[in-house]
Amino acid sequence: MHIKLLTLYTQKRLFLRKLYIEMQKKVNQEKDYKIRLGITHGDFNGVSYEVIIKSLSDNRILDFFTPIVYGLSRVMSYNRKNLNLHDFNFNTIKDSSLIRNSKINLINLNEEETRIEYGKSNKIAGKYAHLALERAVEDIKNNKINAIVTAPINKENIQSEEFVFPGHTEFFANEFESANYLMLMVSDKLKIGTITGHIPLEDVAATLSEELILSKINVLENSLKVDFGIDKPKIAILGLNPHAGENGNIGIEEKSIIRPAILAAKKNGTLVFGPFAADGFFANEYTKYDAVLAMYHDQGLIPFKTIAFNNGVNYTAGLPYVRTSPAHGTAYDKAGKNIASPDSFRSAMYLAVDIIKNRAKHQDMNSNPLGYNLLKDYSRLPEGQENGKSIGEKSFPEEKLL
Q1: What does pTM read for this prediction?
Q2: What topology is assigned to 179-310 in CATH?
C-alpha cells in the first residue's frame, strides 16, 4: 500500500515537473516570438508611403512587431527624402524568406525606375497596388506573416482582368474563400459594421434579407467575442427608412425583414436591439452598445468618420486572417505635401497586433495550452487532481490600444 502511494506520489511530481517545463517553454516562446505585420503600399501617388514611413519612423515600434512592407524601394527612398526623414532605414529584400526580425523590411516588387505623380491616378499605380496585395496574400497563406495592413488603393485604377472587386474587403473575402464577412469600422469610441457593402444605394433595399442581416449579426457577435475580447456584446441595429419606418408608414423593411432577423438572433441568445432610427441614434444612444450594424455604407461611415476620422480603422471581420486598413482613402489632395496624418494608419497596425493577441488568448482559453492531451495524462494521477490552466499572455500596452 505504501509502495503504491509512493509510486503515485512520484508520478504526480514527475507530471507536475513536466507541466512546469512545458509552461516555461511556452512563456519563453511567447517572449521571443515577434508578430510579423505585412503592409501593402496601396496607391503610391497618394499618401500611402507618407503615412507608412511616419508610422514606422519611431524605432520603438519594433519592440512590438516586425513590419514587412510590400512595395517599391525606389518609391520608399524618394518619399523618405521628400519627408526629410534621412534617418529612416529599411531592409530591402526580394521575398519573405529574407525577413529580418526587429527591422523594417521592404519586399521589393520591381527594380525598375517608377515615375511618381503625386495626386494623379494612373494604371501603373493600380498595377503595383494589386501586385502588393497578391504577394501579401501568398505570404499570409504560407504563414510567413501574421496579418495584413493595407494602405489605401484607388478603386478605379486597380481594376483589371485579375482584380474585379469593389474594394479591399471583397478582394480578401474572395481570396480567403469567406462567404460570411463584415466591413467593421473600429475606434475607441465606436464600432460600426454595414449589412450591405460597396453597392449602389438604389440596390440596398432589394439586397437586404432576413438571412443576410442574421448572418452579419452572427459575424459581428463572434468578432466582438474573439477579436475584441467582449464576453457578452450588446449590438444595436439601425433601420433602413427614415424614423425606422414609422411602423410601416415610411417603408416596410423594418417590419418585414429587419425585426424578424433581430428576433431570430435573440432566440439564439444574442444581445441585439433595434431597429433604431439612424438620424438621432448617434447623438448619444450609440454609447450604450458595443457595436452597431448599419443597413448600408454611408449610413454607417458618415457618422463613424464624423466621430472617429483621425484614428479610425477599417477591419474585415469574419476572415481566417487579420486584415486592417486606415479609415481614409488615397487623399490625392494631400499627397507629396508632408501634411498627411499617420494616426489612422498607426491605429490600424496596433489594432492588427491586438486582434492577433486576442485571438491567441481566446484559443488558449478554449483549448489545451500545452498541445497534448492533458486528460489522458491526468487519468494516471490520483482522483481529484486539478486540470492545468492556460498561461497568461503578455498584453499590448494600453496607450497603444484603440
Answers
A1: 0.82
A2: Isopropylmalate Dehydrogenase (3.40.718)
